[in-house]
């Protein structure tokens, strides 16, 4: 398996929270502490709070006319089912990519034809660009930006440090570089790494390569500023103030379940 080589200025535990209100992450600061870092100390460390994911914040990005038409054509409930299945398919593809980057081999029979086609295009991209992997599936948190998340990959290609995200969707959405820029900002905030560009790799694209590799070198000057504007809209809709979300029930669920028979 690959090990992350990224060194952060502080050690954080960032875990997805059990809530049905979008994706939120619980964030804990582990020792050593500095005065004023946080107030609640538990087994994991000093609890800093629950923070929305960058993708949850981007739900406030305007819905495209194409998406509105797609929902209208398929119906609301059917569209949600298709979206959820696409999410599960994306998770399987992400897991398979991590397996290959760790030196593992995949078997065709374990995947659908569409999944296998997209994984094949990832191999083709990797053969061309030969990325040096610095970290995979990295949990991130921005104290300044007040959001958290998990990025797919940080790598070095042709001497440049690039934050890469694998996309199995049929289109490259305008909100994607906003998501990438939020992740890159969190990395730079918490480490000495300077990110040269963020990028999206669309798998299974309808072109001769079978993939699209799109770089956004101006992520900081352009896209992170737009992310901030979308975040302001999202906060207006979801928070009474910057510290009080309107509806964030945290479920304290057991790790195992069993009936008493």
Give an overview of the whole structure.
By secondary structure, this protein is α+β, with helices and mostly antiparallel strands. It has helices spanning 54-57, 65-74, 76-101, 113-129, 176-190, 219-238, and strands at residues 12-16, 24-29, 40-41, 46-52, 132-142, 147-157, 160-167, 197-203, 211-216, 239-241, 244-245. Helix content is 35%, strand content 26%. Helix 2 (65-74) crosses helix 3 and helix 3 (76-101) packs across helix 4 (113-129). The radius of gyration is 19 Å and the shape is globular. The relative contact order is 0.15.
Give the % helix: 25-40%
**Looking across the biggest beta sheet, what order are the strands in?**
5-6-7-8-9
The separation of the N and C termini measures: 42 Å
Structural class: alpha+beta
Question: Got a strand count?
Answer: 11
What sequence of helices (H) and strands (E) makes up the elements? EEEEHHHHEEEHEEHEE
* CATH class type: Alpha Beta
Overall shape: it is: globular
By DSSP (H or I, 4+ residues per run), the number of helices equals: 6
Rg, alpha carbons:
19 Å
Which CATH architecture would you pick?
Answer: Alpha-Beta Complex
Low-confidence stretches: 37-41
Averaged pLDDT, please? 86
CATH topology: Lambda Exonuclease, Chain A
Structural domains: how many: 1
- Percent of sequence in beta strands: 25-35%
Query: How does the major sheet shape up?
Result: 5 strands, mixed
């Amino acid at each position: 398996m690959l090990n992350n080589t990224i060194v952060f200025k502080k050690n954080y535990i960032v875990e997805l929270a059990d809530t049905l209100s979008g994706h939120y992450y619980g964030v804990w600061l582990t020792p050593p502490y500095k005065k004023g870092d946080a107030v609640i100390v538990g087994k994991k460390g000093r609890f800093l709070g629950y923070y929305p994911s960058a993708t949850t914040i981007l739900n406030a990005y305007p819905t495209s006319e194409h998406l509105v038409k797609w929902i209208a054509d398929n119906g609301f409930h059917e569209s949600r089912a298709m979206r959820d299945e696409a999410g599960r398919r994306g998770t399987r593809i992400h897991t398979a990519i991590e397996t290959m980057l760790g030196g593992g081999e995949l078997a065709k029979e374990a995947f659908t034809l569409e999944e296998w086609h997209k994984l094949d295009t990832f191999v083709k991209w990797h053969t061309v660009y030969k990325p040096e992997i610095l970290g995979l599936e990295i949990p991130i948190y921005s104290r300044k930006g007040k959001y958290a998340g998990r990025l797919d990959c940080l790598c070095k290609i042709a001497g440049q440090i690039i934050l890469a995200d694998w996309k199995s969707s049929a289109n490259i959405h305008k909100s994607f570089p906003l998501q990438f820029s939020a992740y890159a900002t969190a990395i730079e905030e918490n480490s000495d790494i300077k990110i040269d560009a963020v990028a999206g790799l669309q798998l299974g694209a309808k072109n001769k390569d079978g993939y699209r590799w799109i770089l956004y070198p101006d992520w900081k000057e352009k896209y992170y500023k737009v992310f901030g504007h979308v975040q302001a809209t999202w906060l207006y809709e979801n928070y009474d103030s910057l510290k009080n979300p309107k509806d964030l029930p945290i479920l304290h669920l057991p790790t195992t379940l069993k009936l008493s028979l």
